[in-house]
Menaquinol:cytochrome c reductase iron-sulfur subunit
Amino acid sequence: MSDKENGQGMSRRQFLTYTLMGTGAFMAAGILTPMLRFAVDPALKGTGDAGKVEVGKVDDFGPEYKLVKFKVKIKDGWHEEEAEKSAYIRNKDGKILALSPVCKHLGCQVQWNTSKDHPNHFYCPCHNGLYDENGINVPGTPPQAPLDEYEVEVKDGKILLSLTPKPRGGA
């Protein structure tokens, strides 16, 4: 008597069925794993207190804007680098304002109080862009939106800025 007649063993048809099902399951797992990883990965990323950078003491800033440069770590995939950023910061009547020095017209660097024709204004030398002392664009000049603003947090007498500035409503 053969093993097949005793109810033991496997027929050729059963072997092929199991082999094809196993191969199909392996291929499906190979296709679904990256998709599942893509969907779940954002939920697994850690959020830390790394979203702020210290730029100085509150007492270091007065009613006149001061340009401060600071470094932030940027991670792009596997590549990690340190980028230098800057902000104009002032402490006027206890209210701290931190503005990005990047013009909203074409991305040039604005300067504080350097235009003789427009004192106490941010001036962009690239295309004569103007912003008032609060970073609001002056109508009739090239910039179409105010300077971006950094989120400010005061902790133990030190000023912490967000890593990236946020856009504000336009004039």
Q: What stands out?
A: The domain at 52-162 is CATH 2.102.10.10 (Rieske Iron-sulfur Protein).
